[in-house]
Write a structure and sequence with these properties.
The structure holds 2 protein chains of 2 kinds. Chain A is built from 1 helix and no strands. Chain A is mostly helical. Chain A starts with 8 loop residues before the first helix and ends with a helix. By secondary structure, chain B is of the alpha/beta class. Chain B has a 6-stranded antiparallel beta sheet. In chain B, strands 10-9-8-7-11-12 form a 6-stranded parallel beta sheet, sandwiched between helices. In chain B, strand 7, helix 8 and strand 8 form a beta-alpha-beta unit. In chain B, helix 2 packs parallel to helix 7 and helix 3 crosses helix 4. The mean pLDDT of chain B is about 90. The chains are: A mainly alpha, B alpha/beta. At the A-B interface, helix 1 of A face helix 1, helix 2, helix 4 and helix 11 of B.
């Protein structure tokens, strides 16, 4: 046994979507910084 | 086949690139003058929200290649999570802009422009309804068919109004080519919906089937036997499912997904085993032989790889259906690999295929463990399926085997945890969740 906390497959998808949402939020911030007057 | 993690990462990278495409396009000239940081941030959130909404139609596009490698349930779960993110971004779009520029409140003021305000309130209401109806469908007792139709209608409404909103505001779409891109993107998304809900079901109607038999099974379930009419049948892999519609149907496009329970060796006579769970499923028992049926598929990634050295099946209730298709197929092929089935049900009288399993045991290298909540006199594990039972019954030191889990969510979570703690690779754990949608 690895002792690590098991990761259920549907939780992997949920985590991935959360990371995607964060990346998108950061990308929007970058866009706003580029576009801001 | 690449692992699930690497496939998910690839999907995530493509998804992020597509979701950010609108921002990349609006950065191209002609560019309007810049505004304050928060206004641009709020506007950017709106663009990405609309892109995510458009991509939602892509995720439910029933693409066989993606579905076959990743599993339609994972795609649907991704779709579901993405819907929540889209709503969050819309909320951010509205909140940031209204708080930062109170003048923008006129957008939602019917006294200023009743058509615009009406459309924007409608889109916000549609978004709320999309989420609430999806999350509470079962609690509210809504039929799957009604929810599915409403879901498509509301999502289309959000996409159309969102696109018109972008065009009407017009800040980043002054050039004709920019407007054309937005309109085309929205039309492609809607075309995908029409493809899934109209074109594919109509395609299935060109290869009709006929109900040959309706057989009552244990545990409030029915097996429909279907014969092809004027064609050779359907190739499917054991463990896959198809979308079924039956005549007479008021809605010609009505479809529900069910697993094949028959052997994949018999493409000319397929069986679907369906448990009565309300709505359409409760009408199966009254279907008459001779009724016209239409099946679209196959779909699903719950399939035994050819190179598997053996398999362990963990089933709960009607989750046995795709596993039964696998066992029957392996039996027809004279498979000699070691197999184990751990099958949890409430009791023998509610155990699907209880009478046929002993025959399969004699034909295959199959060990069967029944877990009955309410057992009779037969040898079995007693009570609910627990980690302890799984620990004892899953073969030890066999990371080379493939593991298939299908049943109610809590049971699947439990089985996945036990396997993960044994360091079984995620690529060898095959799950299919029917309650994602």
């Amino acid at each position: 046994m690895s002792g690590a906390r098991p990761v259920l497959q549907h939780l992997v998808v949920r985590r991935m979507m959360r990371i995607i949402a964060l990346v998108l939020l950061l990308a929007v911030a970058l866009f706003a910084a580029v576009r801001a007057a | 086949m690449p692992g699930i993690r690497s496939q998910l990462l690839k999907l995530a990278a493509i998804y992020v690139a597509l979701a950010l495409l609108p921002l990349a396009i609006v950065l191209l000239p002609p560019r309007p003058p810049g505004r304050s940081l928060l206004v641009e941030y709020g506007v950017g959130l709106g663009f990405v929200a609309l892109a995510i909404m458009g991509l939602q139609f892509l995720l439910t596009g029933r693409f066989r290649r993606v579905g076959a490698s990743l599993g339609l349930d994972r795609m649907l779960q991704f779709h579901r999570e993405a819907g929540l993110v889209a709503a969050f971004f819309v909320l951010g779009h509205v909140t940031v802009l209204l708080l930062h520029r109170p003048g923008y409140r006129s957008f939602l003021d019917p006294r200023v422009d009743i058509a615009r305000a009406g459309a924007l309130w409608l889109v916000l209401l549609a978004l709320v309804l999309l989420i609430v109806l999806t999350l509470t469908r079962r609690r509210l007792g809504l039929s799957y068919e009604w929810w599915r139709a409403t879901h498509a209608g509301l999502a289309s409404l959000v996409l159309i109004i969102g696109t018109v909103h972008v065009l009407r505001v017009g800040w980043y779409v002054s050039a004709t080519w920019q407007q054309v891109i937005w309109v085309i993107a929205a039309l492609v998304a809607l075309a995908l919906l029409v493809h899934v809900r109209v074109v594919k079901p109509l395609g299935a109607r060109r290869r009709p089937w006929r109900v040959a038999d309706v057989r009552r099974e244990r545990g409030q379930a029915w097996t429909l036997t279907l014969d092809p009419v004027g064609h050779a049948g359907m190739h499917f892999a054991a463990g896959q499912f198809a979308w079924l519609s039956l005549e007479p149907s008021a809605l010609a496009l009505q479809q529900n997904p069910f697993s094949f329970s028959s052997s994949a060796e018999r493409r000319d006579r397929v069986e679907l085993t369906i448990k009565e769970l309300g709505d359409f499923t409760s009408t199966i028992g009254s279907v008459r032989p001779g009724t016209a049926a239409f099946i679209e598929g196959p779909y699903g990634a719950l399939v035994i790889p050819d190179n598997a050295s053996g398999a362990v099946f963990i089933a709960g209730g009607v989750g046995i259906t795709p596993i039964m298709s696998m066992l029957r197929t392996l039996s027809d092929r004279g498979d000699t690999r070691p197999l184990a089935l751990i099958y949890a049900t409430s009791g023998p009288e509610r155990t699907l295929f209880l009478d046929e399993l002993p025959t399969l045991r004699t034909r295959l290298q199959l060990e069967i463990v029944h877990v009955f909540e309410n057992p009779g006199q037969e040898p079995c594990e007693r009570g609910m399926l627990t980690a302890d039972i799984l620990e004892r019954r899953i073969p030890v030191d066999r990371p080379d085997l493939h593991y298939f889990i299908c049943g109610p969510s809590p049971m699947m979570d439990l089985a996945e945890q036990v396997l993960a703690l044994r360091d079984i690779s995620m690529d060898r754990i095959h799950v299919e969740r029917f309650d994602i949608a």
